[in-house]
């Protein structure tokens, strides 16, 4: 804890990614990617399909080893660490295609994320001693409290795969937060959601950021979400960063429009705009 | 210990009852030696299968190596008691005991070192472990040999029946630990493989063990194991009490692990490895731990098996037989402890018992036709296994009450305390 306060007081950046590259054979999935996240900021990462956004997430969380570059989290280089170590340092994530533990109960899904903080040894568990029972009870209550925050308390006994889609998403975010992260990576949290659910999700993201004092980086295709909640946006295309800025700047950036709609589209949109103003 | 819940009481009561019923039936002579043996074999199979269920059913690693570890436990425990009863020497005991302890210490120390030396690949780590274990095991042979005489005199000072029982129980436990340590070494490089490849590699392990046992007198130099002729002269010491005692112990240990955070971590690896990693679970570590615990159970069961008939033959440990625990686990229901125990007894009673008796003479071989057909029908009708996800109340995970309720309960207990 003291370590964390020192490193954040030294600079306000919780995550600094520089020169990050990933080659899959000859394919440059990510090339020279840079990103800095201020503590407590909410940043969007957007780009057309195949731009390399999820690959960046996978490198930050240690699932892929980067070909080059460094990732500094709270003043420490985390390249080469195992995914579980990175998670324990304080980076949690959700997945594009929901990855819950499908056959386990809602409660167990959250309790698994508490495992690194369980506080008892395997011998305690086998002996079923008092220490185990106390810690296990505390852990369970903490998990239930967590479910209550996300409105899933009554669902604790439900098998995760039987939950409706929106609740599965919410559960995945709850599970990620149960690991007590400082940085949360959300990979397309609004994918497959209807407009009402999307609005709920945007509220939820705002809420968890305040409540858990989080820094959030999110990938999203729904522009309503990105433009609505992100403070800054980074746009990727073909593995490279093509634009950075506030939502307003990004919306009018010709390179972004070109990446999304093809060459010439920017001129076209300019024409439309002029027509509108006339 | 006032807060023992009902299910625990039922479980312990039921276990004692089953034990007593069988024990009385055997003592009175209603249950013939044939059925007595079959019941003991059923219990032994239950222990092996519980180990496999932990590895395959709960951790999701398709292992065919269970039978190899079973063989290791059987031969090592059998050899220790053989030396004590036939040769009046505790040399086997002291050497195996020291070897297991020293190898255990070596593993723990090197594990600490490997954790410090970050980024060591699995193969070099394996080499490091192997060197450490072999060095200390050699030391154990030297020191253990020297300890033989003092231990001999201590054990001989006790009444012969008592010392025999002590040697037997220690030998069975050592068989389990020996299998567990070998499984740790073997699992280190092999557990990095994906699931199907892991299955093939573990099948290879069972084949290796069988070949080594076939040539145990020549290649390994254990003359008393007599290679492919089979080892005789092991004391028949596995009583119903001992198998049942170890079975209940294994069930309780399995249950306590599964109902803890460690159990949830083990299951999360089966459910989704990448998600488990992203949730801070050390997947490789949990695969190893589960594999070692499962193999420990296999070794334990092997030790018990060796002392049922007093005869061990390498053919018993043929790789074909390594599918038996696999079938039991799938038949009983993957991830169901109750199902595994029930299926093990069903396997022993039906395959070895009834079918052998029901089928007319000369048709005993037909049971291997009936048995797969039964399996086939079963899989078509109940693909989740006999018990599916069912667990008996003692083994069931109880959902904690909702928070509001627990708070009111706490208040209630506080008031009780005050009153």
Characterization of the model:
The complex is a heterodimer of chains A (278) and B (419). In chain A, strand 9 (232-237) and strand 10 form a beta hairpin. In chain A, helix 4 (106-113) packs parallel to helix 7 and helix 11 packs across helix 12. Chain A has twelve helices and ten strands. In chain A, the strands form two sheets. A six-stranded mixed beta sheet of chain A has the order 6-7-8-3-9-10, sandwiched between helices. Chain A starts with a helix and ends with a helix. Chain A is of the alpha/beta class. Mean pLDDT of chain A is 87; it is low at 1-10. Helices cover 44% and strands 22% of the residues of chain A. Chain A folds into two domains: 2-90 and 180-277, P-loop containing nucleotide triphosphate hydrolases (Rossmann fold, 3-Layer(aba) Sandwich), CATH 3.40.50.300; 102-178, no CATH class. Chain A has helices at 2-10, 53-60, 83-89, 106-113, 122-127, 130-149, 165-178, 195-212, 223-229, 247-251, 254-261, 265-277, and strands at 13-24, 27-38, 42-46, 68-73, 76-77, 91-93, 183-187, 215-219, 232-237, 240-245. With 419 residues, chain B is an all-alpha fold. Chain B has one domain (32-411). In chain B, 74% of the residues lie in helices and 1% in strands. Chain B is built from 15 helices and two strands. Chain B has a two-stranded antiparallel sheet with strand order 1-2. In chain B, helix 6 (160-190) runs antiparallel to helix 11 (283-309) and helix 9 (261-271) crosses helix 11. The longest helix of chain B has 36 residues, at 122-157. Chain B is globular. Mean pLDDT of chain B is 87; it is low at 405-419. Chains A and B meet through helix 3, helix 4, helix 5 and helix 6 of A and helix 8, helix 9 and helix 10 of B.
């Amino acid at each position: 804890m003291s370590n964390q306060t020192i490193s954040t007081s030294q600079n306000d950046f919780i995550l600094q990614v520089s020169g990050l590259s990933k080659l899959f054979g000859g394919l440059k999935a990510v090339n020279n990617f840079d990103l800095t996240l201020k503590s407590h900021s909410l940043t969007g990462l957007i780009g057309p399909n195949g731009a390399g956004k999820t690959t960046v997430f996978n490198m930050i969380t240690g699932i892929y080893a980067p070909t080059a570059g460094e990732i500094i989290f709270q003043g420490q280089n985390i390249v080469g660490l195992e995914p579980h170590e990175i998670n324990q340092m304080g980076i949690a994530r959700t997945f594009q295609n929901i990855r819950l533990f499908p056959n386990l109960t809602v409660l167990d899904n959250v309790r698994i994320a508490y495992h690194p903080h369980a506080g008892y040894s395997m011998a305690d568990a086998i002996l079923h001693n008092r220490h185990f029972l106390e810690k296990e009870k505390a852990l369970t209550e903490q998990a239930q409290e967590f479910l209550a925050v996300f409105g899933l308390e009554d669902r604790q006994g439900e098998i995760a795969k039987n939950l409706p889609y929106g609740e599965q998403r919410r559960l995945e975010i709850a599970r990620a937060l149960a690991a007590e992260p400082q940085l949360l990576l959300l990979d397309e949290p609004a994918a497959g959601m209807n407009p009402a659910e999307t609005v709920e999700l945007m509220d939820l993201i705002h809420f968890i950021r305040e409540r858990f004092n989080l820094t959030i980086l999110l990938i999203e295709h729904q522009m309503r979400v990105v433009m609505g909640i992100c403070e800054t946006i980074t746009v990727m295309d073909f593995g490279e960063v093509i634009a950075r800025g506030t939502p307003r700047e990004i919306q009018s950036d010709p390179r972004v429009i070109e990446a999304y709609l093809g060459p010439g589209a920017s001129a076209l949109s300019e024409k439309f705009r002029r027509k509108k103003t006339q | 210990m006032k807060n023992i819940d009902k299910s625990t009481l039922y479980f312990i009561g039921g276990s004692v009852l089953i034990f007593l019923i069988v024990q009385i039936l055997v003592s009175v002579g209603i249950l013939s030696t044939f059925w007595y043996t079959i019941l003991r074999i059923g219990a032994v199979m239950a222990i092996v299968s519980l180990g496999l269920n932990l590895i395959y059913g709960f951790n999701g690693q398709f292992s065919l190596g269970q039978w190899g570890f079973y063989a290791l436990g059987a031969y090592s425990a059998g050899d220790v008691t053989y030396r004590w009863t036939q040769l009046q020497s505790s040399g086997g005991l002291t050497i195996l005991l020291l070897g297991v302890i020293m190898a255990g210490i070596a593993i723990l120390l090197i594990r600490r070192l490997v954790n410090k030396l970050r980024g060591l690949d699995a193969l070099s780590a394996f080499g490091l472990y192997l060197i450490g274990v072999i060095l200390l095991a050699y030391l154990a042979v030297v020191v253990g040999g020297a300890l033989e005489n003092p231990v001999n005199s201590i054990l001989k000072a006790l009444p012969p029946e008592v010392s025999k029982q002590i040697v037997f129980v220690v030998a069975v436990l050592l068989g389990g630990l020996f299998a567990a340590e070998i499984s740790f070494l073997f699992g280190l490089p092999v557990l990095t493989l994906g699931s199907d490849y892991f299955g093939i590699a573990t099948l290879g392990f069972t084949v290796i063990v069988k070949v080594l046992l076939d040539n145990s007198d020549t290649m390994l130099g254990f003359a008393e194991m007599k290679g492919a002729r089979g080892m005789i002269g092991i004391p028949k010491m596995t009583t119903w009490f001992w198998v049942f005692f170890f079975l209940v112990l294994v069930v309780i240990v399995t249950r306590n692990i599964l109902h803890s955070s460690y159990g949830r971590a083990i299951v999360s690896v089966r459910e989704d490895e990448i998600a488990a990693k992203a949730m801070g679970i050390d997947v490789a570590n949990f695969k190893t731990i589960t594999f070692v615990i499962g193999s420990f159970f296999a070794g334990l069961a092997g030790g018990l098996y060796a002392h049922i008939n007093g005869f061990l033959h390498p053919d018993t440990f043929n790789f074909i037989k390594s599918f038996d625990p696999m079938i039991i686990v799938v038949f009983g229901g993957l991830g169901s402890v109750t199902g595994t125990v029930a299926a093990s007894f069903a396997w022993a009673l039906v395959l070895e018992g009834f079918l052998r008796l029901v089928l007319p003479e000369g048709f005993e071989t037909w049971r291997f036709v009936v048995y797969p057909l039964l399996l086939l029908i079963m899989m078509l009708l109940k693909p989740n296994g006999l018990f599916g996800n069912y667990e008996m109340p003692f083994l069931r995970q109880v959902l904690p009450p909702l928070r509001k309720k627990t708070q009111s309960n706490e208040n209630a207990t506080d008031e009780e305390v005050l009153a």
